[in-house]
Amino acid sequence: MLYDVPEVERILAERMAASAPPAPPQPDQALDRVLDESYGLVEVAGKLQYTSELLFNLDPALYRELGLELLNAPLNDGDSVE
């Protein structure tokens, strides 16, 4: 027992977990698909890149916002998002 504190290991583990930074955002396959279908490939420095990958790495919040907006947008005739 450390300094007469019972369960010191559990308390330390809980406090360390609480002070840890949040996990970084992760790409979402549905958002990737809808962004790439809507905007296609982008040429950067002579190389083609997926729009979703560029957007996710530059601005994860905008990636999510725009992706969700596209997913929730009404479909035009003949369009399908699978």
Give an overview in words.
It contains four helices and two strands; from the N terminus they run ααββαα. The protein is elongated. The model has no long low-confidence stretch (mean pLDDT 87). A two-stranded antiparallel ribbon has the order 1-2. It is 54% helix and 10% strand. With 82 residues, the protein is mainly alpha-helical.
Q: In sequence order, what are the helices and strands, one letter per element? A: HHEEHH
Oligomeric state, counting identical vs distinct chains: single chain
Count of helices?
4
According to DSSP, the number of beta strands is: 2
Radius of gyration: 21 Å
Spatial arrangement of strands, main beta sheet:
1-2
Poorly predicted runs of 5 or more residues:
none
Cα distance spanning the termini: 58 Å
Judged by helices, strands and strand pairing, the structural class is: mainly alpha
The fraction of residues in strands falls at: 5-15%
Overall 3D form: elongated
Keywords for this structure?
82 residues; 4 helices; mainly alpha; two-stranded antiparallel sheet; 2 strands
